[in-house]
Amino acid sequence: MNLFRLAGDMTHLLSIVVLLLKIRTTKSCTGISLKTQELYVIVFLTRYLDLFTRYLSFYNSAMKVFFLGTSMAIVWYMRYHKVVKQTYNKDEDTFRHYFLVLASFVLAILIPRAFTMTEILWTASIYLEAVAILPQLVLLQRSSNIDNLTGTYVFLLGAYRALYLVNWIYRFFTELHKVRWIPWVSGLLQTALYADFFYYYIKSWKNHEKLKLPA
Length: 215
Hints:
Structural class: mainly alpha
Number of domains: 1
Mean pLDDT: 91
Number of helices: 9
Shape: globular
Low-confidence stretches: none
Order of helices and strands: HHHHHHHHH
Distance between the termini: 40 Å
Radius of gyration: 17 Å
Strand content: under 5%
């Protein structure tokens, strides 16, 4: 564990806390993509299959349980909570996310870390996480009014991935001395997808304006 990895984990955790705070306090999921949240459930389910078979540390297990539990809770709120589900932007959240799932699993079979079921599923989760934010970004482009909590949630998610890239570079020079192509390339792609959002988020914050993405 190094400072960049810890900062990335805490930023990721904070992004989920911000999203849950928005949903629970406002009883609204306006501006949040259910498609993206469902993709994250698949990401965590396929990545954390070793949760009950391989113990690394209390911290590791606790973070896995947190992300699994909160991702499922968010989807439950958006699908089944009698008040929250009425605020879901179904007509605008139309990204066909199942294509992302299919493409990620096909790519994981063709380019896995190792040819075992567990490793293929792990690899698929890495590929899928890289593009899971796409439905959310498309929804924000279609939304004329992006509230502060939603904008902050997406910004923190992007910051988490950027910090993980720094973590991998740090580990390359201090520990591993080898390139891990699958997470590195996927992480670069994922961070690049946030670049446009980062620009407009920081611009709106600097100018004290309402966040709005160009169509």
